[in-house]
Backbone:
């Protein structure tokens, strides 16, 4: 068969791709073709594209280095309708029809990049250069230019079509990795009757079996994996998630899994799983080799070259060669030979290799060079040739090759083990860090645990699966191990890394352009501890988290500082293991779902009345504009309606907490600054609550509904806070008190009818109780029927007018409000909103906790010193009120203020100041133009404010200064005649 | 305004619909439930373990906390139940404080699992009805799992504060398509 002209590197047969389903895609504007089952990386290689990216810092040309999540070079931008996703690893992007991908760096193109001058001047940009240079005149001058030159992708500015989901799940055993060990373990656990979740980053199960030639139970490895997965899938209680990567292991244990859609729709899902046991079977990552020019396009991990060849039927180059220090990489050469390609050479750093391997290679026509290394690589656009040398320095000359498969050993994927605080040990045989000790809910199996060989890995997976089942009280039936008839070569022993510095640069971290010279510089500058070393050089950072470079970096640091690898240790492997989109982390918590919105029982009615709703954690009417009115005119009209006729305000969100029990009065007496025991049934009292520091946390009305039954009104925003706070005191501090606390805020719809005509309006609603001044005086409470509805009525006021707060079961809210509106029309009733309410209370000087107070305001500061001193019993915060700081002169006290110049506008936040050079003496907390008084008024907190009543003080506000007069906080009806009528 | 609308918390909150369906899923508001909190002490035969439910005819008693029960009735009459209460028990009518949203179908547990951390998909394997208080879509909710019903599959009642009913309903609407796919196994690998 002739190779496809559009895919010159595609083998005519083989692989796990669907050749019957070609897929068209674009890369950097070029039309390309691949097949279903391809990744973008394999398709690019098949199309003969070797150079796909530019490096992050130095703009060096980069190719595809790996075949999985460890990819450090091939980061691309994937475009979807009107948006794009940056930093996608081409090795993980699964090909779909119409895929449009672009390189992230390189101008005007990735092939001809003017930014290459950075590489040509590389001595100017060593590790940590930004800590030493570009300091004059200041870093900020240079930063935008440097960031434009470097960087990892651009985030889209507009919301795209992406959709992010979250879901919680539970299982007995979570198996991470559906390679041989994971499949065997899942099979053992599932056969014991456990609920198993098996997750795999790849779209299909199999792990390394997909990219290697192996034979299990007379089936090719990939087929065996599908057979086992199908068996598991058919089993009750087993869920297999592909395209899903473990992101993190948290306490609990809670595990987060990132699931990405494979069809390009960007439909990501974050699974939050609570397993009883976790099995990590994620395998191991092959590591690169250190040699001069080891970053050139065409240099690829040996296992990746094998995967592209066997799984995707793609030859990464026309003249492959191998450079390694272990047996596993030799398999790459043999697989190329089997596929019909000539292999230029195998350069192995070991002085001696298995004679049988050497014989096989020579028989296949491969030049075998033991005790050898790469001295230099050549090529402009990509790899063209290499210069070889013996380990003792003797030159061996140049060899042509355009694909160099490299292997410097293997690093087990122990990251998630470390998330769970598992410790590591350095294994001399395998020259890598392995899990040490045990963790109670976490186990590792297969090559992630340092097990080498397919048969051994399968046996280990079964063993751990059975052990986990036993831990959970289940017995797995004995199963026959699959017969391994053929398996790839593996690295059973890795020699110690020989770090040789030289004139030419050797990359230890391809993603962040960190070279051996940078490592040496870090050591010279004293950054010899591994965590310092990482931060100075930036090795192991960014999207790949150093998966192909970390081990070499640690070994290089050890070599440069004369320490053993176990003495160097590793950096902290923090979550997430793999990049997770922020959208998936946020899940549904965005937009309308960001903060829960509460709706009033009569929301629909307010809407019909034309209310402008605003978010006060509840959706509440701000004001009710009439035709042609500005907001200010509307608010002014509403205020005057309350002052001269009658208004109705939806006060349903006000906190309503009921306290029942024989000790309810004693309990509340300790809660409030003022006396509660003395409140008679049917009467109410305004009160303040302090915390232990004497700081005012809430205010409201406390009503005694019965001898052992109280109703507390709290600020609408503080209901949950106060309810929980009361529960804490009742349950933790005073458990001996017999009482029950219940938040009934949602049970009752509450409407305030306020104004001189309020009583007349209530009369028209046929109350079953008396509402005359002597029957229901100010601060009294009763219940009965109103408008034929069960109702509670409190005679309290936040406006300074005659006012009734009428509560009915919330389901009757619309009914009552409609009745009020219907009967009130003849009395000139109008609804009023929050804005009008705030002006009404400002005119009366009524405190608004949180607006007129802050985290330091005490009850004394708002004029309640005498009340507190008068109280005989103890209350929360009393002791703190006696502290010197709370009794000192200069405390900021609540005062009223009005401008000396009548036309002067007051604004919240203006600072009281004695002039330039003096500090603030307080600030304006509430301000507005009073419709009733026709002038600007405000409240504020001023140092020793009460003693300064009548004085004039300066205000500094946004660059302007003006004078205000200090007054009593109450501006309107200070005698209170209107609310006592 | 129909009776259904008059009693519907969602309608009063400004929504037109009080039910929706998705593959494997039906969500509807169930108005008119009698909900009563009982505190401090309960009748002798009431459940004492948190999460247990006592069901009789159309009424249930949910044990929410060691000293808190919720009596759920289909009508307003609670006399029979409340007469069993010992002296000292505190009874609070909360029929208007909550909205009851009923979820049924095979996708119902997955809809709940998208918004709350409890193990709903395995709820079906528990033979008796049970309940839990949980955080769902950032708000507090009480979930009452009824025994599997032949025509509806799995049946859950979610009780949420009435002011938050519309918010949670909108979260259910958003989450429903994914829940349907999860229930159908579309998100999982298939042989």
Residues:
């Amino acid at each position: 068969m002739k190779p496809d002209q559009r895919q010159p590197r595609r083998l005519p047969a083989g692989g796990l791709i669907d050749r019957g389903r070609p897929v068209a895609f674009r890369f950097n504007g070029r039309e390309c073709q691949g097949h279903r089952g391809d990744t973008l990386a394999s398709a690019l290689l098949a199309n003969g594209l070797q150079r796909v990216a530019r490096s992050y810092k130095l703009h060096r040309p980069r190719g595809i280095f790996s075949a999985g999540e460890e990819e450090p070079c091939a980061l691309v931008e994937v475009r979807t309708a009107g948006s794009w996703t940056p930093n996608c690893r081409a090795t993980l992007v699964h090909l779909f029809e119409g895929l449009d991908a672009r390189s992230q760096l390189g101008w005007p193109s990735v092939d001809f990049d003017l930014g290459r001058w950075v590489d040509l001047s590389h001595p100017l940009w060593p590790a940590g250069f930004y800590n030493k240079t570009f300091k004059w005149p200041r870093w900020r001058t240079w930063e935008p230019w440097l960031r434009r030159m470097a960087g990892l992708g651009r985030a889209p500015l507009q919301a795209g079509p992406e959709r992010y989901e979250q879901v919680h799940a539970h299982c007995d055993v979570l198996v991470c990795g559906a390679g041989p060990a994971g499949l065997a373990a899942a099979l053992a656990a599932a056969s014991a009757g456990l609920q198993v979740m098996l997750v795999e980053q790849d779209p299909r199960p199999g792990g390394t079996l997909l990219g290697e030639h192996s034979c299990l139970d007379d089936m090719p490895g990939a087929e065996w994996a599908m057979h086992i997965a199908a068996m598991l899938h058919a089993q009750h209680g087993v869920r297999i998630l592909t395209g899903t990567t473990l992101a993190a292991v948290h306490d609990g244990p809670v595990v987060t899994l990132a699931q990405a859609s494979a069809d390009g729709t960007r439909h990501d899902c974050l699974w939050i799983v609570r397993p009883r046991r976790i099995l990590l079977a994620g395998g191991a990552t092959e590591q690169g080799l250190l040699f001069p020019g080891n970053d050139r396009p065409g240099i690829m991990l040996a296992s990746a070259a094998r995967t592209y060849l066997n799984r995707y039927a793609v030859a990464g180059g026309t003249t492959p060669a191998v450079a390694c220090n272990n047996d596993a990489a030799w398999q790459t050469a043999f697989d190329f030979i089997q596929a019909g390609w000539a292999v230029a050479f195998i350069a192995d750093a070991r002085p001696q290799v298995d004679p049988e391997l050497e014989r096989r290679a020579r028989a296949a026509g491969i030049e075998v060079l033991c005790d050898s290394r790469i001295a230099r690589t050549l090529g402009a656009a990509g790899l063209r040739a290499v210069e070889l040398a013996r380990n003792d320095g003797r030159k061996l000359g140049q060899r042509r090759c355009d694909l160099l498969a490299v292997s410097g050993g293997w690093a087990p994927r122990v990251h998630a083990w470390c998330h769970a605080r598992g410790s590591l040990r350095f294994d001399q045989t395998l020259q890598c860090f392995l899990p040490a000790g045990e963790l109670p809910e976490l186990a590792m199996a297969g090559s992630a645990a340092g097990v080498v060989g397919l048969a051994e890995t399968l046996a280990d997976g079964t063993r751990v699966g059975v052990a986990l089942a036993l831990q959970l009280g289940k017995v797995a039936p004995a199963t026959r191990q699959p017969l391994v008839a053929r398996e790839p070569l593996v690295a059973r022993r890795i020699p110690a890394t020989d770090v040789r510095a030289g004139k030419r640069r050797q990359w230890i971290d391809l993603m962040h352009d960190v070279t051996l010279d940078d490592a040496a510089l870090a050591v010279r500058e004293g950054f010899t501890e591994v965590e310092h070393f990482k931060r100075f050089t930036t090795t192991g950072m960014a999207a790949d988290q150093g998966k192909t470079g970390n081990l070499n970096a640690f070994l290089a640091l050890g070599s440069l500082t004369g320490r053993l690898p176990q003495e160097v240790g590793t950096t902290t492997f923090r979550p997430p293991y793999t990049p997770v989109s922020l959208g998936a982390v946020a899940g549904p918590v965005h937009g309308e779902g960001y903060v829960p919105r509460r709706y009033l029982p009569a929301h629909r009615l307010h809407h019909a009345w034309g209310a402008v709703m605003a978010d006060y954690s509840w959706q509440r009417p701000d004001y009710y504009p009439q035709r042609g009115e500005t907001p200010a005119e509307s608010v002014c009209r509403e205020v005057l309606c309350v002052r001269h006729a009658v208004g109705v305000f939806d006060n349903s969100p006000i906190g309503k907490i009921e306290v029942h029990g024989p000790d309810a009065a004693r309990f509340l007496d300790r809660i409030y600054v003022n006396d509660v025991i003395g409140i008679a049934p049917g009467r109410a009292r305004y009160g303040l609550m302090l915390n232990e520091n004497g700081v005012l946390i809430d205010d409201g009305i406390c009503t005694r509904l019965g001898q052992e039954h109280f109703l507390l009104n709290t600020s609408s925003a503080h209901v949950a806070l106060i309810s929980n706070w009361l529960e804490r005191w009742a349950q933790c501090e005073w458990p001996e008190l017999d009482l029950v606390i219940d938040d009934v805020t949602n049970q009752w719809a509450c409407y305030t009818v306020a104004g001189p005509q309020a009583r007349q309006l209530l009369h028209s609603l046929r109350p079953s109780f008396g509402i005359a001044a002597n029957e229901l005086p100010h601060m009294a409470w009763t219940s009965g029927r109103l408008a034929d509805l069960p109702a509670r009525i409190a005679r309290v006021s936040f406006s300074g007018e005659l006012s009734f707060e009428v509560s009915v079961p919330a389901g009757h809210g619309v009914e009552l409000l409609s009745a009020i509106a219907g009967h009130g029309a003849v009395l000139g009733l109008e609804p009023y909103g929050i804005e009008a309410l705030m002006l009404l209370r400002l005119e009366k000087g009524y405190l608004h906790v949180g607006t007129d107070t802050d985290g330091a305001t005490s009850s004394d500061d708002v004029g309640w010193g005498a009340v507190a001193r008068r109280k005989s019993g103890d209350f929360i915060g009393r002791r703190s009120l006696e502290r010197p700081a709370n009794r000192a002169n200069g405390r900021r006290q609540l005062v009223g203020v009005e401008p000396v110049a009548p036309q002067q506008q007051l604004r919240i936040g203006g600072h009281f100041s004695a002039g330039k050079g003096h500090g603030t003496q307080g600030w304006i907390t509430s301000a507005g133009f009073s419709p009733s008084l026709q002038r600007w008024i405000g409240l504020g907190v001023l140092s020793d404010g009460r003693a300064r009543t009548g004085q004039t003080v300066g205000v500094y506000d946004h660059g302007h200064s003006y004078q205000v007069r200090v007054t009593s906080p109450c501006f309107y009806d200070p005698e209170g005649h209107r609310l006592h009528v | 305004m129909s009776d259904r609308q008059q009693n519907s918390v969602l309608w009063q909150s400004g929504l037109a619909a009080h039910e929706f369906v998705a593959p494997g899923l039906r969500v509807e508001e169930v108005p008119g439930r009698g909900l009563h909190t009982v505190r401090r002490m309960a009748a002798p035969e009431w459940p004492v373990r948190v999460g247990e439910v006592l069901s009789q005819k159309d009424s249930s008693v949910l044990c929410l906390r060691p000293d808190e029960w919720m009596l759920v009735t289909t009508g307003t009459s609670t006399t029979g139940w409340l007469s069993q209460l010992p002296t000292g028990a505190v009874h609070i009518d909360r029929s208007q404080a909550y909205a009851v949203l009923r979820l049924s179908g095979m996708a119902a547990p997955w809809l709940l699992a998208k918004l709350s951390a409890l193990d709903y998909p395995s709820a079906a394997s528990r033979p008796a009805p049970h309940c839990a208080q949980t955080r769902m879509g950032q708000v507090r909710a009480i979930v009452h799992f009824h025994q599997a019903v032949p025509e509806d599959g799995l049946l859950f009642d979610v009780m949420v504060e009435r002011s938050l009913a519309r918010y949670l309903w909108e979260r259910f609407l958003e989450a429903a398509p994914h829940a349907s796919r999860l229930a159908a196994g579309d998100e999982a690998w298939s042989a």
User: Anything to note?
Assistant: The helical segments of chain B are 3-7, 9-12, 79-82, 108-115, 165-184. Chain B touches chain A through 50 residues (CB under 8 Å).
